[in-house]
């Protein structure tokens, strides 16, 4: 499940935490929000950022056998 969590501090800082998005696509998801919030001071990539998305290849092989 994709989750965006925001913590707004009394001094106006906003901490954003993204979970459930694998790879760098989280930057695409959060770009518009960050543009509205203001200047990004720091970023700390999580392990999900560096993970590779799972891909399923659909290769089929035919094997011929006989039932002797």
From TrEMBL:
Pfam families in alphabetical order: DUF2997 (PF11211)
Organism of this sequence: Thermoleptolyngbya sichuanensis A183
Protein name (Swiss-Prot/TrEMBL): DUF2997 domain-containing protein
């Amino acid at each position: 499940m994709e989750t965006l969590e925001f913590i707004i501090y009394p001094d106006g800082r906003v901490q954003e935490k993204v979970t459930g998005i694998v790879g760098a696509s989280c930057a695409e998801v959060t770009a518009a929000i960050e543009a509205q919030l203001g200047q990004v001071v720091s970023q700390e990539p999580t392990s999900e950022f560096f993970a590779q998305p799972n891909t399923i290849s659909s290769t089929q092989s035919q094997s011929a056998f006989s039932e002797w």
